Amino acid sequence: MSGTSCNWIKTEKDTVFLINSIEELSKYISCQLDTLPIIDFDKLSLLLVCGVNTSGIHSITHDLQQISTTECKFMIDITIDMTGMFQVWSAVLLTPKIPKNSVVKLDLRQH
């Protein structure tokens, strides 16, 4: 959301949210001056995970692994630093359409 007035609304931490429509997206994002991002939800899905760290964060990377036609794994790797700062983080991935009845498992690693 960098460069916009939009922010992610606080969500349950360490939970994957599968977003497949603009109506669903509006539950997780708040925009003061800008409109919601334009996403073709006929072809795409958005995965969202939010969390908190009691130490600083050096970097966050993520990837999606297809396990079967109805199951995938959203892998998030957080490299922490030693600043001791409390940080809120989010990982967002725009991906080809994932059916609503699919299971998206979270694989969260911190080191």
Tell me what the structure shows:
With 111 residues, the protein is mainly beta. It has one domain. It is 4% helix and 53% strand. It has 1 helix and 8 strands; from the N terminus they run E-E-H-E-E-E-E-E-E. A 3-stranded antiparallel sheet has the order 2-4-7. It has a 3-stranded mixed sheet with strand order 5-6-8, with no helix packed on it. It has a two-stranded antiparallel ribbon with strand order 1-3. Strand 5 and strand 6 form a beta hairpin. The protein is flat and about 45 Å long.
Topology, number of strands? 8
- Coarse structural class: mainly beta
Low-confidence stretches: none
Order of helices and strands: EEHEEEEEE
Could you report the average pLDDT, rounded to the nearest whole number?
89
